[in-house]
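Q: What does the assembled structure look like for these inputs?
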Amino acid sequence: MPYSYDDQNIFARILRGEIPNKTVLETEHTLAFEDIRPLAPVHVLVIPKGPYVDYAHFAAEASEAEIVDFNRAAAEVCRLTGVTPGAGGEGFRTVSNAGVNGVQEVPHYHLHILGGRVLGRMLPRE
Ligand code: 5GP
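A:
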């Protein structure tokens, strides 16, 4: 089934400048900004500027330039926020939720970068 992108989603509106954001980094193809309801001292969302619904959509249809730019920008956000291990930071977690089981709230692909405290196990064991 082809991906269907809703251009009224909140991150599309942020990209169009209709809603303010606290930008951490902007590159040619990528925007990174602070999450409005942070779950950790560092909680940054990294999004491609292109209209991709989730990780699978982005990986399948984004150009190589977009994919490289996105990944380099995400790593740069880790460096800028001081969480990169080996560069003086104490570590981080990246999370990308997709679809119903992933409990994705905003249907524009985004990577959460979380850090600044010990985050605990990835998921509770059931
Ligand atoms: P998801 O559940 O889709 O992976 O995560 C969506 C994230 O977007 C949530 O962590 C939520 O706090 C954040 N968010 C929702 N609306 C806004 C907004 O208007 N501005 C910002 N900066 N973050 C938002």
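The chain has one domain: 10-115.
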